[in-house]
Design a protein that fits this description.
The structure holds two protein chains of two kinds. By secondary structure, chain A is α+β, with helices and mostly antiparallel strands. Chain A contains eleven helices and 25 strands. In chain A, strand 19 and strand 20 form a beta hairpin. In chain A, helix 2 runs antiparallel to helix 4 and helix 9 packs antiparallel against helix 11. Chain A starts with a helix and ends with a strand. The N terminus of chain A is likely disordered. Chain B is an alpha/beta fold. Helix content of chain B is 52%, strand content 7%. Chain B is built from eleven helices and six strands. In chain B, the strands form two sheets. A four-stranded mixed β-sheet of chain B has the order 1-2-6-5. Chain B has a two-stranded antiparallel ribbon with strand order 3-4. In chain B, helix 3 packs across helix 4 and helix 9 crosses helix 10. The longest helix of chain B has 23 residues. The N terminus of chain B is likely disordered. Classes of the chains: A alpha+beta, B alpha/beta. At the A-B interface, loops of A face helix 3 of B.
Chain lengths: 480, 301
């Protein structure tokens, strides 16, 4: 095929060789100026028979001889045939996984990673599932759509009809849920890829690269005994426990160098050594912890995978188990005082939830107020921990507080005492609103605090130490 | 010199031979013989598209997203398979079959686009705060955006986002083939604002003699917006535009604008007359017949 495409290659070489023979002067005219010196050189050989000149000539001849020979095709098939062959091969690898694939998806190299499961059917149908903040109602979601492997710049796996599981990362519309920095992302979204160059594929692993954004994505074959929903729920529960909201601030000590770790809600950590040295590190939640998108070096030590310890208090480095990511404190009684917490009646014991309902009704009757919120937080004006009572009337928030004395003598145990004071509105509520005095009395007790993971306590269970039936739950408030 | 002439003649004749040897054009530019895999997930729909678009109209209805086939500068997502099917049926019912009934089945085969490409999301331009709803490239390809938001129970929204867009883009194709009178462009000369049209409210645009804010961007957009709006809007909706046009404009801040001396209603009606005549003379289309048919079908959805 090459000779047909390039017929002049061999001919040119042959013509050029004939020029070096002694009969060369007959060419005269055009080109003579260039050829004459060579002819002279050849004549010179006869006189001197200089060995080095012979060697030179031979090497020139050998050089030309090299040009004579056509290179044989490196590949036995045409590029189009090879592309089709690769497409067929990838197609059969993808469809051979009977329980599908686990895809470690990154929209781009600065966005967080999410686990998607995909099963490819020979008919061109792909079934996907996921469970994260990005899925419908943050629950397990499964949808089917179409896929193709097309011949683009090499074989490209494209998901060319909409599937919410994957295209949520690319959708420029309704990107509110993805807005990790509270910016308006309308028109942008996360700009994730849904066309992937297949770099390599073997029976149980496929290496993809996003076509526009270039993120590296790995697909691994899912074992046949794994049930999709329970597997994703397990991952989702861990994700929820650790990253339902941004982490308060975590820390990792690497040989005397402290690193502070922020964010995480959308699977991207900001790891700070100082205000100048900040690493933005995307990661993915694995079944036993987290894994960074790429290994990163902190104070000369390279990290990538971390495992949550049994007590769920730290993420221990898999590569270097002597290092771990920890929360700022293991004492929830201390932790609780640094944040504002909202009372969640529906997750509290009956006594507390019915008290909430009574107060809510009273606020509606007395003040025509709606959306009753009860919060615990530190108030700088009162220089005290307080119970905040607020409601909304005519789109305006009315708020008052009652002072609470808070002490802790034991880890995770909080003693609350009503201080018989508050601001003017708070005292008015105390005197006028049915149920508030009882609530304050119920809060005046010793509570044992617990949470799912002390790495990022965002929901705290407060159990009355003297009465097992009495408990309430508090959810951490994220500052605006 | 003689040789040169000889070789020149020879090569010309060879070129001619090459031309005369050309294969006959097939009925379609697409491979309509291409078999659709019976086991493919999209088989039923692909077959339907083949029978309802490719064979009768020589049109490829593309619902599978092709990034290279769209503008790579936008952040887009594909249309869902379900919405693609809904859209394909609606486009046929409210666009192709309308022309088929009123103008004749050959009309769209000759003048219609060759490709319709559906995209799931709008094409946002976040910098100018606008979104693209459709494009018509060189009279051959019409791209419809935002198809994932299709709600076939809301005719007004469907008109705004899709059908007005289709008639708009198709009108572009028609005037690219047969020019509209220069006189049209003179009516609102100096009032067009290609970069700032989106800041005019519908009322402000109407009072200036534009049926929509976008009509005030350029005169060719003005021309096709008249057609598109007149075709899809009911009498009540069309009269609302004319009423707005007859009154002083109110901007987005709710302020009444000073009298600009333009009788917006008269301007719009004058433009409509030019459109009506052009469609009649150049295309033998009676716009009111088309409109009646479209509105009749819309009511039947």
């Amino acid at each position: 095929m090459n000779s047909a495409l390039n017929p002049s290659k061999g001919d040119t070489a042959r013509n050029y060789l004939s020029l070096a023979r002694p009969k060369l002067p007959s060419f005269g005219g055009v080109g003579g100026g260039f050829l004459t010196p060579l002819y002279k050189t050849i004549n010179m050989f006869n006189k001197t028979t200089n060995k080095s000149h012979i060697a030179l000539l031979l090497s020139i001849l050998l050089l030309f001889a090299g040009c004579r020979k056509e290179e044989s095709d490196i590949f036995p098939h045409t590029p189009a045939e090879r592309l089709q062959h690769a497409i067929d091969e990838y197609q059969s690898i993808l469809t051979a996984a009977t329980n599908g694939w686990q895809v470690e998806y990154y929209a781009n190299s600065t966005s967080g990673g999410y686990t998607l499961l995909m099963k490819f059917d020979a008919s061109g149908l792909v079934t996907m599932a996921s469970r994260s903040k990005l899925t419908k109602n943050a629950a397990y979601e499964q949808e089917s759509s179409l896929y193709e492997i097309i011949g683009d710049n090499g074989p490209v796996l494209t998901f060319n009809t909409f599937n919410p599981i994957l295209h949520v990362f690319s959708n420029p519309e309704h990107p509110e849920i993805l807005d990790r920095k509270e910016e308006d992302l309308t028109g942008y979204g996360w700009q994730g890829d849904y066309e992937f160059i297949i770099n390599k594929a073997v029976k149980d692993t496929v290496w993809l690269k996003g076509k526009k954004q270039g993120a590296e994505i790995i697909m691994t074959q899912l074992a046949t005994d794994i049930q999709w929903q329970s597997y994703l729920d397990e991952l989702g529960d861990l994700d929820d426990m650790l990253f339902h909201v941004d982490v308060p601030v975590l820390s990792m000590l690497v040989d005397n160098v402290p690193y502070r770790i922020y964010n995480g809600k959308f699977h991207v950590f900001d790891i700070k050594k100082s205000d100048r040295e900040i690493h933005q590190v995307p990661f993915i939640v694995t079944s036993d912890g987290i894994q960074f998108y790429q290994p990163i070096e902190l104070n000369g030590v390279v990290f990538r995978s971390f495992e949550l310890n049994r007590a769920r208090t730290k993420l221990v480095s898999v590569e270097h188990p002597e290092y771990a990511i920890r929360g700022t404190t293991d004492d929830l009684a201390e932790f609780i005082q640094n944040f504002a917490w909202q009372f969640i009646p529906e997750l509290s014991s009956l006594d507390f939830s019915s008290l909430y309902n009574r107060i809510s009704d009273a606020v509606t009757i007395l003040y025509e107020g709606e959306q009753l919120v009860l919060k615990l937080e530190y108030n700088t004006e009162a220089n005290s921990y307080v119970l905040v009572v607020s409601y909304v009337k005519d789109k305006q928030k009315i708020e008052g507080y009652l002072n609470l004395d808070i002490t802790s003598d034991e880890q995770d145990v909080l003693s609350i005492n009503y201080a018989n004071s508050g601001d003017k509105t708070g005292m008015q509520f105390y005197n006028e609103v049915d149920g508030i005095d009882e609530l304050v009395a119920a809060l005046t007790a010793d509570f044992e605090l617990s949470t799912d993971s002390k790495l990022n306590p965002w929901m705290i269970h407060c159990q009355n130490l003297n009465d097992n039936a009495l408990f309430f739950r508090l959810e951490r408030q994220i500052k605006d | 010199m003689r040789n040169l002439l000889k070789y020149t003649l020879l090569s010309i004749s060879m070129i001619l031979i090459a031309c005369s040897n050309d294969e006959h054009f097939t009925a379609s530019i697409f491979n309509i013989e291409k078999s659709i895999d019976e086991n493919a997930a999209g088989y039923a729909f692909d077959t339907w598209l083949h029978e309802n678009y490719l064979e009768p109209y020589n049109l490829e209805f593309r619902y599978r997203m092709e990034d290279v086939g769209s503008d790579m500068n936008y952040n887009l997502v594909p249309v869902s398979f379900e919405k693609a099917q809904e859209m394909a049926r609606l486009v046929k019912y409210l666009w192709f079959d309308v022309y088929g009934t009123v103008v004749g089945p050959e009309f769209l085969k000759e003048n219609g686009p060759r490709i319709i490409h559906l995209i799931g999301s709008p094409a946002y331009n976040p910098i100018s705060g606008t979104m693209l709803l459709g494009t018509a490239e060189g009279g051959l390809k019409v791209t419809l955006f935002r198809c994932n938001e299709l709600d076939s129970t809301d005719v007004d929204k469907m008109n705004e986002y899709y059908f007005k867009t289709m008639h708009h883009e198709f009108a572009h194709i028609l005037h690219q083939k047969r020019n509209y009178p220069v006189e049209f462009g003179l009516i609102s000369q100096g009032k067009y604002n290609p970069l700032g049209w989106q800041y005019r409210s519908p009322s402000e645009a109407a009072s200036m003699g534009f049926v929509s804010p976008y009509a005030g961007s350029q005169n060719r957009e003005d021309f096709v917006e008249i057609i598109a709006n007149y075709l899809v809007k009911t009498d009540t909706q069309w009269n609302e535009i004319l009423t707005m046009a007859a009154n002083p404009g109110i901007n987005y801040d709710g302020e009444e604008l000073p009298d600009d001396g333009i009788d917006g209603k008269a301007v719009i009606l004058r433009k409509l007359e030019i459109v009506r005549k052009w469609l009649q003379d150049s295309w033998n289309i009676e716009i009111d017949e088309l409109r009646t048919e479209i509105i009749r079908r819309q009511e039947g959805i």
